[in-house]
């Protein structure tokens, strides 16, 4: 049954019920058999009413709801709005999705824990903070002296995988899990639609998690895919199955804690079907005005990082490879991940020393405002990463 509501030239999708499980237009898994909730012609304006990544209902004055562990509650992640059938789109087409506007909610949240990127090296604690949002900036009592400008964007823009693509993705992710890699395999806990993906659903072990981006798009968490940008997604099934969600008020490149300023919101998009479009085998493409690439500040401070470590250390993210070569080396060759961690640690040290925040506060600031960018990839062995801090976020 199609559930879209038409308002003049717009099609409104989602927004019913207080929880994802109560909204027929809310999903948090990906599968080609998920029913479409709206049918829309290419070129029509679509308004997706979306929930925050944890489907939380927060008071900006409430700070006591931190989950007990970094992975608790991930069954609900991410509540997306859709999927929407785009008339005339067939497998092999490319779907161009242009973002026209994103209206933020009134509150947001950010969570930090040692399980985030570089969290063990940063020595961060566990903390959950709530932000007050308006059209211009975000503020939190937990981070006095910080004002984050509005840089709203959808973390997730996706089409549905086709049957062939689904099996390829399931197989490679299970292989990675079997090898001890960091990956979330299908899990029916809190899965929506429950009739397909839940514990009593028809295909609970075939529904992809929304945590990783893949060829279909998904949780790309690219802050440049914002108002004015167009993202190009592959169409694997008839109608493509467009879904959006995981709205972020602001995020640094890297989203190091694992969360940005997470929020609900309303996003307006329009679509175009592209025949003989670009090859998206390695992931979606996107374009937009160059202004989207700028940092939201008149001045910045930056640190750098290279793949250096103590000889006895084995970086957490490659421990599953069980390499006997890593122990004993103090320099890894062309390891961008380690270089990024070192740039981040230097930035955390700087924020703590210069502004007086504790390490967890500094980590939260980095997740929502600091950009990790590649400097170069060719100066072997030391590839370089830089961490860029916009200084205008500090009001004191």
What does this structure look like?
The protein is built from 5 helices and 21 strands. It has 396 residues and is an alpha+beta fold. The protein has 2 domains: 5-293, Jelly Rolls (Sandwich); 300-393, Endonuclease I-creI (Roll), CATH 3.10.28. Strands 1, 2, 6, 8, 9, 10, 11, 15, 17 and 18 form a 10-stranded mixed beta sheet that branches. Strands 3, 5, 7, 12, 14 and 16 form a 6-stranded mixed beta sheet that branches. Helix 4 crosses helix 5. Residues 64-71 have low confidence and may be disordered.
What would the keywords be for this entry?
Endonuclease I-creI, Jelly Rolls, globular, six-stranded mixed β-sheet, 396 residues, alpha+beta
Largest sheet: 10 strands, mixed
Alpha carbon gyration radius: 21 Å
The CATH architecture of the largest domain: Sandwich
Q: Tally of extended strands? A: 21
Give a short summary of the structure.
This protein has 396 residues and is α+β, with helices and mostly antiparallel strands. It has five helices and 21 strands. The chain is globular, with a radius of gyration of 21 Å.
Write the layout of secondary structure elements.
Blueprint: E1 5-7, E2 10-13, E3 26-27, E4 29-30, E5 38-41, E6 45-50, E7 80-87, E8 94-112, H1 119-122, E9 127-133, E10 137-139, E11 148-149, E12 153-158, H2 163-178, H3 194-197, E13 208-209, E14 217-219, E15 230-234, E16 240-248, E17 262-274, E18 285-287, E19 300-305, H4 336-355, H5 359-369, E20 371-376, E21 384-390
Parallel strand pairs: 2-6, 5-7
Antiparallel strand pairs: 1-2, 3-7, 4-13, 6-17, 7-16, 8-9, 8-15, 8-17, 9-10, 10-11, 12-14, 12-16, 15-18, 19-21, 20-21
Helix pairs in contact: 4-5
